[in-house]
Amino acid sequence: MEDGRRTQSRHRLSSQLPAGRAEKAPGDGGYGGYGGGGGGRRRPHAASSRGLSLLPTRGSSLGRAAPAAYFTLLVSLFLVSGLAISPIAQAQAATSVGIPMLASIGAFAGVTDTAEEFARSLKEETGGKVFISNITYDLARDVVFRAVREGRAIGLGAPGNYANFTGVDPRTIQYLQNDVPFAMSFPQFDAFLRQANFSRYWDQVYKPFGIRPYHAGTVSGAQLGGWFKKPITKLGDFRGLTIRYTGNPITAFQGMILSEVGATPIAVPAPDIKAALANGTLDGVEVLGPVADEAAAYWESGARVLHYPSFQGPESTHFLVPDAVVAMATDKAVRRAAQDAVSLNSAVFYGPRAQAALDRFRGKGVTIRRLPVPVVQGLYRAFKKVEARHRAEVGRSNPLFAQIIDEYNAYLKSTINHSVLSAPEAQQLPARDDIVARFIGVQPTVAQQRAELCRRV
């Protein structure tokens, strides 16, 4: 009976997806603003000499990049024409099959760890029958999606990367990838996907394309509130600032919130952020989290104030696996490989590496400051205002999208009180005076702030 309901709801979702494509994000790497620009950084895996690799490999080192000319040839033969290399469906008789992983995300710390762990585990779980031949990062989203749909690759990216092809609007997709403002925590969303079956919406979105999605963890970990040239001491300080925030500033909630409080959100390509900070085009920027932000060194361009907390969730990603590959590897093997990857992803983004990055920030003269409680409350009120407008709009145009929003918010509300009581800071901060002095000062703890927000909802 449950299977029947799920199948029926999948058809219902497919029928309610808009005929036109969702609006593309601007040229800053698109939705999310982290890669997908088509640079194509390749990391080859060692291919089995007995197997059939669907993309030629060069060398055995996972971290060795192929020369530009070689990669260009691969793209022209494999990704564009599709004629020179046999698709997965024609390779099932081989002793083992190597398939490339194509990512629409850049080769960031944490992302590469996650992709490589999935590759390691998939080969182990299938006994070498299916293996990742190589991994290429920072590819254009249409290239990745087309290759996966045609059964020629496994994809890695966030749901929002492919909203232009699946037809989900750019704000509803934020609930499907947990980067809606004031979102669930990473473990909450993982449980929501797996135990509360929210992942069925992922299944429904990709089923018409012959693709199976599997959770791949987060692209950022706990995000921060942004790098600024001057501290934000009150909500009015946002007025007149020009800020580059992750996500499409025209269509994403984050940009809408900034507009509500008087700031001007703009799209700046990631490689140009430091120059824009230095020449005054930007007053502030938010990209990902401490692990990924460290290499950018925004403090060198005058943004020496790092605020927290973020009003953006820890954006989730997924592996996109063609049905034919799942059939060869089995759903059980792919799911276990994905779970191994999520476990490592969590360790990278929420373990000692993140704290070490924060310590190094301080060593570079960065001031890490909490946003004052009235500022966080003002941002939250702005979010609920724009969210209500969006919910009313999809309620009229696409009831299923409204259902996604309502189900997400209902689960969040059902867990928030326990989250406040069990939050690590609620347990640890009273016993850690050094942390209280460094991060909190005389301000209320995070748990107290969350409890206050709950009372106001």
UniProtKB/TrEMBL annotation:
TM ranges: 68-89
Keyword Transmembrane included in the entry's annotation: yes
Domain of life per record: Eukaryota
Residue ranges, compositional bias (Gly residues): 27-39
Keywords carried by this UniProt record: Membrane, Signal, Transmembrane, Transmembrane helix
Keyword Transferase annotated: no
Gene3D superfamilies: Bacterial extracellular solute-binding protein, family 7, Periplasmic binding protein-like II
Pfam families: DctP (PF03480)
Sequence segments annotated as region (Disordered): 1-52
Record-level GO BP terms: transmembrane transport
InterPro entries xref list: DctP_fam (IPR018389), TRAP_DctP_sf (IPR038404)
The name this protein goes by in its record: TRAP transporter substrate-binding protein
